[in-house]
Design goal:
Blueprint lengths: L1 H6 L4 E6 L6 H16 L5 E6 L6 H11 L3 E4 L13 H10 L15 H26 L15 E4 L3
Parallel strand pairs: 1-2, 2-3
Antiparallel strand pairs: 3-4
Helix pairs in contact: 2-3
């Protein structure tokens, strides 16, 4: 299926761990196999999207980089459905601090990670507070109001 997608013109193959179940060694094997059997020497980027249900989203994302992925979908503070997604700040700092093992760079200004995290936390708290207050004031307790907020995924393109 992936080979057919590339033959049809796909330049990015996104490989998700949608339920957050895969271990880093399994993810390494999967990405390595895709790189060797599908990408080969073609101009195709392997992208990954890992969920954190077992607490392995960052570990799986880093394993994918080592296996040949060059794009990671991640979120500030790891915010995402269920247990969340791979945490942008953890991935970026792992690449920065462990450049000896992960010799890749991003164009992310690490001095902006903390302010971005704080801003997102404040916005989330404010939205939660407003939603809760609105629900209490205008709706019956048996019919709560839920607001769904989708955050854009941040793609971190790696260059080796």
């Amino acid at each position: 299926m992936l080979d057919t997608a590339v033959d049809a013109g796909a330049s990015i193959l996104n490989i998700p761990d949608t339920v957050g179940y895969t271990t880093p060694s399994e993810f390494t094997s999967l990405i390595t196999t895709i790189r060797e059997r599908v990408v080969r020497n073609r101009e195709v980027v392997i992208s990954v999207h890992c969920h954190n249900d077992l607490g392995l989203a960052v570990a799986n994302s880093l394993a994918a980089i080592e296996a040949g992925a060059r794009q990671i979908e991640c979120t500030i503070n790891g915010i995402g459905e269920r247990a969340g997604n791979a945490s942008l700040e953890e991935i970026v700092m792992a690449l920065r601090v462990r450049a000896d093992r992960l010799p890749y760079e991003t164009r992310i200004d690490t001095t902006e990670l903390y302010p971005a995290s704080q801003l997102l936390s404040k916005l989330s708290a404010s939205l939660f507070s407003q939603t809760r207050q609105s629900s209490v004031e205008t709706h019956s307790p048996t019919k709560p109001v839920f607001i769904s907020m989708e955050l854009s995924t941040i793609r971190c393109a790696m260059r080796s």
